[in-house]
Design goal:
- With 222 residues, the protein is of the alpha+beta class.
- Strands 1, 2, 3, 4 and 5 form a 5-stranded mixed beta sheet that branches.
- The chain is 33% helix and 22% strand.
């Protein structure tokens, strides 16, 4: 089933996420997902994006007026520092390094990012990162849906973005003041996670899963 055409998505915009994946020491799946979600939240709360006169504000507003779309790429060697030169926010979490970039039209991705590989980013789970101090965003991925690490990172980024926009002021300030920390939750039944959640991600169906699939949920642990 193909996703329905949405006039808001013409032309499509996306936020690019780049994961550092060196051959000798690749990061773990969960660490990448947590780092991606944190990077998205930190970019969106950065004054350059959040302030009306910020240099990233117009691009973020244009992107958020459309379907949520993120593209996860991987970089190694010299391509990782090259990517750091473009506007964005880098997060290090549990040994994973992920940079979220200022959104742009899909057809106008900067060359330094466009040449980075999208497909095939699938990593081992690795050691579970330690539980961060509260408050933090708890994100659970649907265990009944099989997706790659690249897709999972994008879904966790979506969940962080939705939670950021859904939280009331006091809780939002507490989370952002604490550094918008994220934990990918394991060991909790999916049904319990759904009941506990404040937001849910339903995929647009562009890659890997059918449109409308619930891929992730999130809530704030205080």
């Amino acid at each position: 089933m193909r996703p329905e055409h949405d006039p808001r998505d013409d032309p499509p915009w996306a936020m690019q996420l780049v994961v550092r994946v060196e051959k000798a020491d690749p990061p773990g799946h969960d660490a990448v997902c947590a780092a991606a979600a944190t990077a998205v939240a930190r970019l969106l709360t950065d004054p350059r994006a959040a302030a009306p006169d910020g240099e990233w504000h117009a691009a973020v507003a244009e992107w958020e007026a459309r379907r949520i779309r993120k593209v996860t790429r991987r970089a190694r060697g010299v391509r990782w520092p090259q990517a750091q030169e473009l506007p964005g926010v880098t997060v290090v979490c549990g040994g994973a390094e992920v940079r979220a970039f200022v959104p742009s039209p899909v057809a106008d991705v900067p060359p330094a990012l466009a040449k980075l590989q999208v497909a095939g980013l699938d990593l081992e789970v690795g050691d579970e990162p330690p539980v961060p101090p509260a408050p933090y965003a708890a994100i659970a991925l649907n265990p009944g849906v099989t997706i790659t690490t690249g897709k999972a990172a994008a879904q966790c980024g979506h969940a962080a973005q939705l939670l950021l926009r859904a939280l009331p002021g006091r809780k939002l300030r507490a989370w952002t003041d604490a550094g918008t920390r994220v934990r990918v939750v394991h060991g909790v039944p999916w049904e319990t996670c759904v009941k506990r959640s404040a937001v849910a991600v339903r995929d647009g169906g562009f890659t890997e899963v059918a449109p409308g699939t619930m891929t992730a949920v999130a809530w704030l642990e205080t």
